[in-house]
Amino acid sequence: MSVIERIQAEVEGHPIVLFMKGTAQFPMCGFSSRAVQALKSAGASQLHTVNVLEDPEVRANLPRFSNWPTFPQLFIQGELIGGCDITMELFESGELARMITEAQQQ
Question: What PANTHER family does the database record attribute to this sequence (predicted)?
Fold first, then answer.
């Protein structure tokens, strides 16, 4: 299985996927930490995270897969939502909670 196929499998295999530096319990950068907090505060109980620091192939290829250059990267129902800034904007507007509720009901 190629790294792109592995990324695709992660994105399609879970309703909410955050590719981040570190883990949800131990984020390794401020942007990843803020994204995790926003997701949890918005009700994400089925949050699946992928630590890009543990998988250099994923870290190198995810930006090509998603056309998004930075981490974290949030995918909901197989669709790239964006990075930390977009996640925070969606959280503040209440839209993130709606998207998460919808994804977790699938």
Answer: GLUTAREDOXIN FAMILY MEMBER, MONOTHIOL GLUTAREDOXIN-S14, CHLOROPLASTIC
